[in-house]
Amino acid sequence: MADDLFKALADPTRRTILDELAERSGQTLFEICSRLSMKHQLGISRQAVSQHLAVLEGAGLVETRREGRYKFHDLNTAPLQQITERWLVPDTHRS
Questions:
Q1: Which one, of 21, 19, 16, 14, lies nearest residue 74 by Cα?
Q2: Do 20 and 35 meet the contact criterion of CB atoms below 8 Å apart?
Q3: What is the CA radius of gyration of the chain?
Q4: Residue 13 and residue 36: Cα distance in Å, rounded?
Q5: What distance, in Å, lies between the first and last C-alpha atoms of the chain?
Q6: Residue pair 76/61 in contact by the 8 Å Cβ criterion
Q7: What is the pLDDT of residues 6-36, one digit of tens each?
Q8: Angle at the Cα of 51 (from 55 to 31), degrees rounded to 5?
């Protein structure tokens, strides 16, 4: 799982998508594409954004839900918490 997470975070476009979902979770593919284009001047196709979202979903960082014909993408920070807890060491050297 950690390998998928680090792979997902390694790409700057995917980090930008996560930033956008952190700012406003529950966006459709169209909304994400629009924000990437307008706010970040990224000329990226819907198909490429879909592929990035699939990698993020595979890493557990994005969850999807369907409402009618719309598919919404939500940020899930739980995998990040698991990574930080993995190497979190209690501070035992304080005086």
A1: 21
A2: yes
A3: 16
A4: 9
A5: 37
A6: yes
A7: 999 999 999 999 999 999 999 999 999 999 9
A8: 105
Backbone angles phi, psi at 64, to 5 degrees: -120, 155
Q: And the tokens for 95?
A: 């005086």
Amino acid type, 89:
V
Spatial distance between the Cα atoms of 58 and 1, rounded to a whole number of angstroms: 9
Q: What is the pLDDT of residue 94?
A: 61
pLDDT digits (tens, 9 = 90+) for 39-94: 999 989 999 999 999 999 999 999 999 999 999 999 999 999 888 887 777 666 66
- The C-alpha atoms of residue 95 and residue 93 are separated, in whole angstroms, by 6
In 3D space, the residue among 62, 79, 82, 78 whose CA is nearest the CA of residue 21 turns out to be 62
Please state, for a pLDDT cut of 70, what percent of the chain lies above it.
Answer: 92
* Strand ranges in the chain using DSSP code E only, listed in sequence order: 62-67, 70-75
